Each structure stands twice: as structure tokens, then as C-alpha cells.
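Human: We require from you a standard protein entry with sequence in single-letter code and fold as C-alpha cells, and nothing else.

Assistant:
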Amino acid sequence: MRRPLAAAALATLLATHAATASAHPGELPATPEIGLAAELSAGRIAEDTFGSLDLKVGAQLSVPALLCDPSLNTHDCQTLLRAALHAPLRLRVVDQPPEDASLLRRQDWDEPADALRLLRHLEYGLPGDTLRLRVGELGPLTLGHGSLVQDYFSVLTPDLPRVAAHASLDTPGWAASATVTDLTRPSFFFARAQVRPLHWLLPGSFLARLTLGASLVSDLGAPTTLAPGSAASPTSSPAVTDQAATTLLGADIEYALTGSEDLDLRLYSDLGALPGEGLNVHAGLIGSATISGALTARAQLEYAWLSGGLTPRYVGPLYEVDRFQLSGWGLGLPAPRRRVAASIDLDGVQSSRADLSLNVLPIGLLARAAYTRISQASDADSFTAALTLSPPPLPALQLAAFYHHQSFEGLDRAISWRDETLLSAEARLDLAPWLYLSGRLDRQFSLDDSGLFSPITTWSAGLGTSWTLSMP
């Protein structure tokens, strides 16, 4: 029981078979399954080299699907309950300046909150189920059409573990979702609701294809001013001297031009507001086409009119960093995102975006590229790319990567290794059903002595073993 690498997640549990069940399994397990794994690896975090032992435990079992509609569920109203735990132990092998006298990497376990890193995820439900729940690390998470929240990650640094929670309800007539990004400090959350108002009155008609939606994003402790030159612990956020409750509101309308699963065309328009700062208007087209069930191409094209200081896709992949220090937008020095919103004037500025993806099932390929262009604003473009691949000639090989670069000028600078860049890439090669090789490369973020986030590169390579046990 295998699944491709979760390219978009910054920390995936690949070695434990039970914890990495396919997102679209052909059949649910008849009995509970437990996966055990151990991985030995060597690698670097920032300037130091470590040897690591990672013990992993995963479990999955078939349980009743709550709020199930038998006519829509393909597993007789059954679904999956999955959990994954891991306990990484890193020992310092090469200690580069600044030197640390500790053999054990203390940042991993020096605070009570570090116990949260033991939980990788607890998940209930499968894609297409009415009710789905997830507790643990989240990402990438998009709200609606992405005008307010696009590809958000809850964890970007190896030293600031946080447990997030996401719940969604999805029915043919309405849907709702809610996300809390840190259960220990629930000050940043977002929610969405959508309804098809004529679904019940005119079922099956072209008018029933109309969807209305509303979104809410609230950061109750959004920083506006940081303490200058303050010393900071690597396992805490920068020192904040001033903050402001920040709420973004969204409303949208969507109409499906076609009702076919093989050809799906939808027009939409979004309104996004940061009260007191700006109002943006988005208009776009989403289209997808499936050929013989083996190839699916999807495109989202969007144009937006901006105003005030509301930047498009305000919450993005790097939000947990740029809520403290956002670069670009012609400001020169980085500043908290909320402060940037109060400092810039986007009246008369337009934004255009193309988001393209291709899924080729026979070769296990899923590729995506997205580019956002901000006119009349320097250092404000962004680019995202993602890839997963499991080639049939090498069925034991899995490759995956996620890349995001923001705050740059011009498409020719989309591929770069500068400050506002996020990368997660990994590979796995199964040598036997119980033995595998793995490698990983990440660009993450850590606090420096001044209390600001600085990018760090982490990598590891190792050998692991994993076993799956079926319980009677």
C-alpha cells in the first residue's frame, strides 16, 4: 500500500506505509493496519551536520463515514481514519561556528511545545466525503478561488512546531470549511461557506450551476512593529511591540458553463476587502478537461483590479514568515505584512494570474505552474511550481517537489534562490518491500540573533525500513 510523495507538504511521513495510504484507494482495509518504520540519515541544518534516527508509527482503519450520502459514496459509507507519529533524534556530528556544545540538537526538544512535533497528522475522511477532518501540519491550503488564501503552509521552520486543524463539509447543495492554524494559540484562522441556491428548487437545470460563496480570514495578532535588534530564541517568534487585529472579507459568485466531468468550464468573480485599507475585484475562468480518464489538464486564468493596500493572495505559502517581514512592493526594507498594507497604495494597479496543471495517470505525473504578475508595482510578482512523478519503468522510484518564489520583478527572475523563496523536494527508492533509500532538500526559515527570520537550507539522505501489520 503506497502513495506518491506528498510534494506540497513540507514534512511528509513516507516510510510508514499505513500512514501514507493512497488518497484515492481502490478499496478500504478490511482490518486495522499499523505501520512501523525507522530511518537512519545524515544531513545538514543551517551550518551544522547531524546524524539522525527517526522512529515512525502510523495506523489506519476503516470507519463509518459520517453524514454520508449513499448515492455519492463509493465505499458503502465507509471511510478512513489515519494517524501518524514520529520521534526524530538528531545528534550533532560537525559543529560549525557559531559552535554549540550540545551533542543533541537542543532546539528540537527544549520547550514543552516541542512535544507537538510528535504528531504528524490525524486525519478522518477521503476526498469526496461529506465530512473531512485533519489535525497536524497543513499545506498547501487554498480558500475558494485563492484570492485571499492561496497555498498556505502552517509550518515553515524546523524549530517552531505547531498543530493546526482543518474541517470541511461538502454536499451537492452547500459546503463549508474552517481552519485554525495553531491550536496552542488560536489567533489566526479562516473559514468559508458556499451555497448553490437553486440546487433544490431547479435540480439538474442550468440555473442550478450558480454558486455563491463567502470567506473570512482573521489574524487577531498580526504584527505591525517588531522590537529592533532584539535577541530571539530560535524556537519563538520575533519580538512584537505592536500588533493589529486584521480581518479580510471575501464574497464570490461562480457559474459552471458545462455540467460534464470530462469538460468543466467555470466563470467566477471575487470581491476581497481589508476594511479600511482596500477592496479588490477579481474575475476569472477555470477550465479542466479529461481525456480517456488518463490525462487531465486544468487552467485558472484571472485578472484583478486592486486598491488601497490589499495585496492579492494576502495569505500565501510564506505567510508564517512574511506576517513578520515581507519584502518587495517597492519598500526597500522588509516589514510586517500588515504594516505593508498600511504603507502602499495600489489604486490603479492590476494583477493577472495563470495557474496551469497537468495530471498524467499512466506515468504518475502531476505538474503545476502558477505565475502572478502585478503591474505598476516593483518587486511584487510571484511564481509557484509543484511536481510529483512515479515513472512506470521505475515503479519503486518516487519524486516530488514544491517551489515558491515571491517579491520579484519580471518572469525572467521567477527561478531564483533569494530570500523570499520556499523549496521542498524529496525522493524515495524502494529497494525491497521493507527497505528504502530517501533524500530530502528544503529551504526553510530560522530566527537569527536580531529576531528576524533568515532562510536556511536543510538536507538529508538516509536508509529506512518499514513494516505493515494487519490486525485481526
